[in-house]
Amino acid sequence: SAGEGARSAAMNGRSSEASSGPVSNVVLDSPSASMVVVSWDPPQIPNGIILEYSVVLERYQNGSELGRQEVDRNTFVVEFDDSQNIVAEVPFNLTIFARNSAGEGQSVELTHFTVESTSPPPPSGVRVNRSTDGSNMTVSWTRLTIVQAGSFVTYIVTFESQDSRRKRQSGATCSVSPCEVDGSQGSVMITGLDPGTSYDVRVTTMNGGGDMGMGSPVMVSPGVSSPSSSSSSIAGIIGGVVGGIIAVIVIVAIIIVVCYCVRRRNQTKYAYHHGDYGMDTKKVSTRPEPLARAATKSFMQSEEELATFDPTKAPAPSTGTESQSIERLRPIPVPSFTQHVLEMHQDRDKHFELEYQSISNDPLATYDVAKLPFNKAKNRFANIFPYDFCRVKLKEIQGV
Asked: Measured by CB atoms within 10 angstroms of the end CB, which terminus of the chain is less buried, N or C?
């Protein structure tokens, strides 16, 4: 109740520092295409005593460092020039942060162009899907990267009725045509359309300077998607049908091959068990037909002509088709005979054919007398001749 007592001596103290908050009011300026000036204000929440600021310049595409500057706590502006390879229409990233005794503070990251492209390309792949009732449609496109565009872009979507008396649709979203869409977006929905009206839709690229890359218009009929979208669906359907047909053909071909192989194997098994090795079992008569009775001719005259016959002047015997000399087949052991026959049946009985062709048809002796013109009618068969050394000499019979 007597009031305050005596005060102690004053004591100074400070709490532990923490990472600084981000710098504020960062401004990037480009006096020329190869220069960047960066300015900022101190952090609003320093969380301690700011010691210095770091400003880092990096390539946008791969993050490689172009330049770095460290400045004291009382400096709030730095410059980067062409020594850091700054190029017009090429984006770069800039990072700035403060540092106190606790270390690096929160960073501010910005992407910037010294000079933006004056001719941004139009977007590609514009597609329009209209609802069945025709009251709304979704317009989509392939977004440009800032490297492709050479600038920061905004997309302008315009849609106009093909009826010249109605250039705008007042009930559509985005207020009225055109619609402005941020460069990070790749589609927009437009509602409140007249279901019975066709529209021309166009998507245009615009940079910060107002320069535009104008795309081609896409015509959308009532309740019908754009040609690019529908053609993709048709192409998908056709591709599916063609793929299905090809799959069926392949399956049928596989079944045919399997059936053929199974049948072939069964035939081989049958031949193995029944002794039928694929030969034609149809009995063919090889007996030659006899010649018709020859006209009567004087045998005496024939003997006289034969007496004057000179064998050295007779025509050479016919040897048929000359076959190549083939080595005589070696004997086949009985235990290996079955396997030998199966091997002979391979390649559609090709080995049997070769073995048959190896049989020589050369005559063992001459048969010149039987081939003389006046003796041909006396031979029993037209294609079989007796050898000269064993022929039967006919005698004349009276009255025949």
From this structure: N
Asked whether 292 and 381 are in contact (CB, 8 A), the reply is: no
Unique residue bearing structure tokens 């017009």: 88
170 pLDDT exceeds 80? no
Residue 365, pLDDT score: 87
Count CB neighbours of 50 within 10 A: 19
Reference 155, options 98, 224, 206; nearest CA is 206
Closest CA to 344 of 334, 354, 335, 357: 354
CA dihedral 330→334→338→339, nearest 10 degrees, is -50
Cis peptide before 317 (omega within 30 of 0): no
Helix runs in the chain, H state only: 146-149, 227-274, 299-307, 337-344, 346-357
Residue 115 has pLDDT above 60, yes or no: yes
Nearest to residue 222, comparing CAs of 156, 141, 140, 161? Answer: 161
Out of 195-199, 232-236, 347-351, pick the least confident: 232-236
Contact partners, residue 200, CB within 8 Å, separation at least 6: 159, 160, 162, 217, 218, 219, 220
Structure letter (DSSP) for residue 156: E
| Predicted confidence (pLDDT) per residue in 142-157, tens digit | 888 888 888 888 888 8
Distance between CA atoms of 225 and 256, rounded to whole angstroms?
45
Q: For residue 92, what are the contacts with CB-CB under 8 A and spacing of at least 6?
A: 36, 57, 58, 59, 60, 66, 86, 111, 112, 113
Determine the straight-line distance between the first and last CA of the chain, rounded to whole angstroms: 184
Query: Does this model's pTM top 0.85?
Result: no
Q: In what side-by-side order are the strands of the sheet with 187-190? A: 124-130, 137-142, 187-190
Write the pLDDT tens digit of every residue in 34-64.
Answer: 888 999 999 999 998 999 999 999 988 888 8
